[in-house]
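Record 1 of the preview.
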Amino acid sequence: MKGSANRRVLPGFGLSLGYTIFYLCVIVLIPLSGVLIKTAGMSWEDFWHTVWNARVIYAYKISFMTALAAAGINAVFGFLVAWVLVRYKFPGKSFIDSLVDLPFALPTAVAGVALTAIYAPNGWIGSKLEPLGIKVAYTPLGITVALVFIGLPFVVRTVQPILQDLEKDTEEAAVMLGAYRFRTFRKIILPEIIPALLTGFALAFARGIGEYGSVVFISGNMPMRTEIAPLLIMTKLEQYDYAGATAIALVMLVISFIALLIINLLQARINKRTISA
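->
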């Protein structure tokens, strides 16, 4: 009995660890090291001039700020969508649940063209917003809208399983003891879903930083206004300036890694606090 209890489905630790390291090296570390090696061929002066001129800095700002804003919006509304899909029954629920995954299946270029057609000044929604002084297409707001569209499924699909596993008995007991709905949500439900919500936020943020297809059409690609960093990388590649492209990509990689590391550390701290409580 004792031997069967210690038996594992997967092979031993050594083999599993070796496969994990090999997989990460082939899929992740080797391509990233290629970016670093290609950039290392530049002189410090050329590298600094490439990654720190006014046009590139503004592109960094647009890319990261719109990705952060879209991830924040998705964290709120993605949670609401997941809550409705888990806690309520209504006609067409399965259809709406399937629609959530549509941005995963839809080619990003098609999404960009469709959003541009809808939010352009002569589009279905854009023509209604234009008299109000609200311009979406060819502005940072349009980039944010595109990133919200492609990032929503990450939050919904991350939070949804956690909501499904929550015990309703605890909520009902809190209500019977006189706790108001908001207090029940804040004290019982929110601590359980925050780690998953942060994970969805991080995934949506990471996707938004590197998004190109759905953004390049609706942004208008105007330097110092709506030009994103991935577009600058593509421009460098089209000009056969591979070192310049990898230099910009390296800076984005470092900033993204720091941001995701902070989010993961925050998530680990919240998990530890929840377990200890």
